[in-house]
Amino acid sequence: MNPTVARLTLRGLLGRRRGILLLVVPALLLLVSAIASGSSGDKHDLTVKILGQLGLGTLLPILGLVVGTGAIATEIDDGSIVYLLAKPLPRWKIVTTKLAVAVATTWVLAAIPTLLSGLMLYGTQDGLALGYTVAVLLAGAAYSALFLLLGVATRHAVVAGLAYALVWEALVGNFVNGARTLSVQQWGLSVAGTVAADGAITTSVALGAAVPLLLVVTAGATVLASVKLAGLTLAAEES
Question: Would you say the C-alpha torsion 24, 189, 61, 221 has a positive or negative sign?
Fold first, then answer.
């Protein structure tokens, strides 16, 4: 990691407008969980729906989108990335530093609220709170890498990311059986189901496939983002 790049990235992510937007996601999850904890409905089902469908399936991809694209896309759009690229830094180090900041931010704003919500809703029973928290950690890293790649690859990263998060992850990944194998959310659920008690969380993807896929997507997106950023530098030099 490069401390200067990390500091600039964190400052950009936690700016006034973006910082407020980032806080909305954990606040919403905690608020819904607080309201649901006083409900007389089945606590297990409520916890699975709130942490699995709302938290892991909808709010986490949106948070990953805001953080992942915000870590670099705004600098590319306003041209300030030129000053960073002018420094004698390997392009892969810029990407990995920004990714590390994005992942850490996602973990703080998603994993901690998930754990607190799980404990609020269901306590420590069946390991649901821990299972979903571990799932958010792994899936959050994958989402951050994917959306960071989008931020480097296209100027329409937010639109493309929203389409992916809301259409593929929230809709197709949940309701089309064949597509679940290619869903970060479903990979995360597989991890959650393994950590939690047997049968506590229904999963569609085997753990032996989910974990390697999460690692491959995270590493692959990081490598591709480094290559695309190097290409952006070459294009600037040629012009």
Answer: positive
